[in-house]
Amino acid sequence: MSFSELGICPEILEAIEVLGFETPSPIQERAIPPALNGADILGLSHTGSGKTLAFSIPALESIDPAVRAVQVLCLAPTRELAVQICREVDKLALFLDGVSAVPIYGGASFGPQLAALKRGVQFVVGTPGRVIDLMEQGELKVDHISMLILDEADEMLDMGFQEDIERVVALLPEERQTLLFSATMSPAIRKLVDMVAGEPLEIEIERPQLTVPTCEQCVYEVVFSSRIEVLSRLIEMGRMKRGLVFANTKRVVDDIVDGLLARGYAVDRLHGDMPQTLRERVMDSFRKGNLTVLVATDIAARGLDIDDVDTVVNFELPRDPEDYVHRIGRTARAGRKGRAVSFIGRRDFSLLARLERFVGVRMQREKVMTGAQVEDVRRESLVDEILEKATMAVELPDELRDIDMPAEQLLAAMFNLLVAKTSRELQPIPEDRPSKFTRTSRSVADEAAPVEKGNDWSSLQQSVTLFMNGGKLLGLRPKDIAGLFYNEGGAPKGSVGDIRLFLKHSLIEVTPEIAPQLIERLGTCHICGYEVNIREDKGRPEGGSAPFEREYRPRERERRGATYSGRGNTGFRREREERGGSRGRRDSRERGVERGERVFYDKFSRRPRRRD
Ligand code: AMP
Is the C or the N end of the chain the one with fewer CB within 10 Å? Predict the structure, then answer.
């Protein structure tokens, strides 16, 4: 079947041609014609099935370009998805004059989003929290909305958006078409469908098995500079007899090969610039087992057809989930067992979440093996090798016959010699030190009554508590914080647990893996129009000050290079009196308070304030 048989208008068909799509995917083939006829649809299809096109095409066709008002509202769980949908809509609308789409999500300033609404944008793709805020403020007008799309509805429910979705739906005109897409079916989805769409046409697309169960998929968090050492440790531990390592660029491929060659491993490279004859020679050498490791880019590895690769290493994560599937498909072939190891950095968490959603598998988080662990494994495998040799009939060499020494002593000396000869000196890496993000920290959180409980969070053994210097006084609600963490912070679903709101601060529990990314991305950020800081909570020291005070003291100390131990704000008052009330800018030393005095600054106005 071709796109032209689906009843799509010529302008969009032309855009599809420009995009280079030749045949419709199953969900497009089955959903587009009825949706164009006005049917409500429940599409059970996964990411990567082409569902965005399946709903965007009927949505664009339902828009009247002459009407400068929102006509299609699409709700999506994350800001990334909202932006991605808008990009596809814009491409499809290339030849539709006067039709445009805008993404609307929380954590970003209202200005550009309001401007787009005022310009008369017709297609809004938004995250539920921000959409309901704009609707309730009367900025997003609903009277012309004739189509509601819910994308990744299961994801939205998992992220706690049910109440927001219900509020949005309650404000929409009843006379409308609804297209709802979800990767999974559950009673909660059924309830949502009943509420938003009545009895839609159900279309289910079977999810293809993208990876095989015999392939164990795991992840190591490793800084880039440590990766060659970690790769070497994998080889040292005997976990990689024939490994394929993938990098995204030729330059990184060269760096890996140089690093491994310098450490003495049998390794070669495969990248696009190499002449065909050389590539074939390298592949042949790998096939024959002369190489322990072959390092390649995605494109160069296309022609590689080898069945018994035991480990695939993603030295860098591929941007495209399909490349990930192709890469790891080189191991665990023909019923064999295999391992896919991915190295990730702090910025890769949302990409990892996307990959996991795409393949439908949660990858095992593993800790980088320490030097001592590598040493233990290495010694154990030497013993195994010795025992294996010993099962064969071996004769005592003549040179050892006349030695008058206990066999045990001799054996121990030989073993130590062997260990020394076969050992590669390990290089220390930052990952050898224990991570501060893997501890359990519930102490402060336990003191307060929880405002909102996460789903199954109580069963979580390890969590990190993050501190945010904004709370009830700013009018914050747990869902604002959850929205910020999921949308702005890129937290994968389920990674945010208890959110406890206090007057001036909040404590948020998150999984250890996501904590570094959240601190990095959200360190200083905006929530509901206020600037706040987010960092790891250090807990309240015994008999120490309240969290709010803790927040101010270190920062002031840092700014002034002074130690505070006294009470009251007499320093600032005195200073102002001395200056005759001047409010001009002064350098920090002038402005500084003498040692032993303490000044508190109002968090949001940045002005000093009294503390009695
Ligand atoms: P989606 O499931 O909407 O996230 O789409 C997954 C990917 O498939 C996107 O990169 C689309 O651009 C692409 N895609 C969508 N429809 C087609 C098609 N008919 N042929 C080829 N690629 C497609």
Answer: C
